[in-house]
Every structure is written in structure tokens, then in C-alpha cells.
């Protein structure tokens, strides 16, 4: 059973798997969300808590998802079911996969709308639309975009189609090919932009903001955000990494591979911060500007700097690529499930899921305009879907996966798959059995009180 291949195909090599999983991980979460939540939560101390969460919770859970997927070689629901059976335990665990598919649709719906903003800004930058703009003008431009459902809907639709086209083409001709082209481009763009940021006067201020730990600024709320973001940024707790793991070559060690993915995602987030905050500081702007940080402050900053239009354009192309490779991975678990469970054609499964995601995304388009009065727990659809996925569904899904692997799955299976030294395996086991579940529970409980 362990040596069979997924019917969807498999990655050509361990490196392709690393790049594909990194393509999933590196997205709007790194370049849009991480800098703005770091700004909102005071900088350094938040970054430190986030790094701790990645290392002690995120990485062990990622190893777990990869090994489950690779052992079962199926979609997440099928994988959880088959590992339950193999371990003689209840197959109710497959319910985690169901929550994950729902989370995937929810995330896609707001992700695609933000990606749509990025596409709009690629156009704006290319045509020099914000050259020399003041903060007021750039703010008005961004708010004008949000107030315009038609434009938002068009970009949301275009982005959804871009994703469908790749996913429908399959693991090798779609996902893998996109990975081979887009990931090198992403790394080159990132380094160019880092070099540009290092040449600005604000680099030291940006560096200090991110790495000076001021714990007085830390709240339980910020810890929840950091923990939730560590799941979001590594694409954990909703089946994506499990689905990608199902296509991983047998030979490669799960442990080392996952460390590489986690390290790459973290490096990209830190570089994004180091590319953005210096520009913010060298123009005397507010790091706590929230979700608009990237869309208001940055164009202003770029608009006033030498070669700013050019680098601004590169910047938004970079984010567009990152968002694209992540959105592709959001669809993969459910598409694989529809194909494997119901024998659907991959094309049909992708289009069906794409329509569901697209329709759901309309609520996020409307959140900023015609539906802004519809709120749930005081949040519009966009904020609500962002909040419950990142801060609740993904940590919960991740913890259930951890409990499953730590307590219900035969230990020997984990050991065979993860393939690390005895000490590293013990560390994994302690994290998955105790550290991760306890940490998430504490943070949840504190935030409920
Ligand atoms: N990890 C992606 C990011 O940081 C978001 C994502 C979450 C992608 C879940 C796929 C699955 O932007
Ligand atoms: Na990420």
C-alpha cells in the first residue's frame, strides 16, 4: 500500500515538492498580511512570538500533514480515513478533512478579492497612475477601488479563472509547471526588492522595528493573531499540505524537506517586512496602517522615490505571483477529493469548485460596498471569513491532525514516514502530543475569556 502512487500524479523530485509547497506557503500571508499585522501589533515582540509558533507548532504539524498525505497517497479525507483504518481507530477523523475543504472555500473567497486588488495595482503601477501621489490621494484611490463592486468583481473573476486554468491542467502539467516558472521568478523579484529597500535611509529603522522586542506591546490578542498566522502562512490545518504531500516522492525524508519549506516561508515573510518597513519609515508613514499598508503607503512611497514606479510594479507582480501559487493550492484538496471520491473529471471538479469559491467571494467583494451593513459578530463577510479561518478553523484543524497523528495513528507509521533521527522524532512526538495542542488550547481559552 505504501508504495503506490496517487492517481493525480506525483512531483518530479523532492525539490519540486519543496518549491510547490513553498509556492503554497508563500503568498499574501507573507507579503500583505505579515507586515501589516506586525505593524498593528507593535513589531519585534510579535515577530518573536510568531517565530516560536512556527518552530514549535507549525513545523511539527506540517511534518504530520506531509507524512499522512504521502503514506495514503490520496486526498485529505481519503487519507485520514485510510490511516484510521490502518491504525484500527475510528474513521470519524476524516471529518477534519471536511472542515478543511470548507476552510479552503472560505479562504479562497477573500484571498481572491485581495489578489484582485493586486492585479488592479499592477495595472496602476504599469501606467504610473499613482506617481507622485500624496497619502490622501493614494488613500482615496484605494477606498475608491473598494467602493467599486464592479471593478472588484471583474478582478476577482479574472483571478479565479487564472487559478482554475492551472488547477484543471493537473498536478504535472498544471501545478508543477506553474511552480517551475513562477517560483524562480518570485525569488529573483524578492531579492531585487530587498536590495532596493537596503539602499533606502529607512532600513535601520525598519530593522529595529522588526527585531527590537518590546513585550509591553504584547497582548493575548496579539498572541492569537501570531498563532493563527503561523497556520495561515504555512497553509496548515486545512488539507493543502496533506494533498501536496500525497504527490511527494517516496525516497525523500519528510523531516528535512519540511524544515526547508518552513525556513523558506519564514525568510520570505521577514524579507517582505524588511522590504516594506524601511520604505514606510523613510517616508515618515505609520506602520500600523492595517490592511491598507501595502496598498496605500507603499504606492505613495514608491511614487516619491527614484525608479519607484518600476520597483513598485515589480513589487505588485511579485505579490500577484505569490497569491496565484497559493490560491492554486487552496483548490487542490477538494479537487482531488471530487476526482477520487466521485470519479469526476478533473476539469469538471475544478470548474465546479471554482464556481462555488467565486460565488462565495462575491460576499467579500460586497463587504466594502453594497453589503457593508451585513455583519456577523461585528465583522463584515471579508473580515469574518479571514478571522474564522486563520484564527479558528486552521488552528483547530491543525490540532485535530496533531492529536490524530500523536495519539491515534500507529507510531511506527509516523516513524517510517518522517525518517529523522530518534531524538528529532521524540521532539516531533512531544510537540504533536502536548506542546501544539496545549498551546492552541491556552490561546483559545484566553481569548474566549
Ligand atoms: N499560506 C498562504 C499565504 O501565506 C495562504 C494559504 C493558506 C494558502 C491555506 C493555501 C492554504 O498566503
Ligand atoms: Na505564507
Automatic annotation (TrEMBL):
Q: State a single Pfam family of this protein.
A: SNF
Q: How does it sit in the membrane?
A: Multi-pass membrane protein
- What range does the record give for the signal peptide? none
- Please tell me whether the keyword Transport is annotated for this protein: yes
Q: Where in the cell is it found?
A: Membrane
Q: Which GO terms describe its cellular component?
A: membrane
Q: Which UniProt keywords apply?
A: Membrane, Symport, Transmembrane, Transmembrane helix, Transport
A GO MF term:
symporter activity
Q: Does the keyword Transmembrane helix apply?
A: yes
Give the stretches traversing the membrane.
Answer: 12-32, 44-68, 96-119, 152-171, 183-210, 222-246, 258-281, 301-326, 347-368, 388-409, 430-448
Q: What is its main location?
A: membrane
Instruction: Write down the PANTHER family for this protein, in alphabetical order.
Output: TRANSPORTER
Instruction: Give the UniProt family note.
Output: Belongs to the sodium:neurotransmitter symporter (SNF) (TC 2.A.22) family.
Name the UniProt record assigns to this protein: Transporter
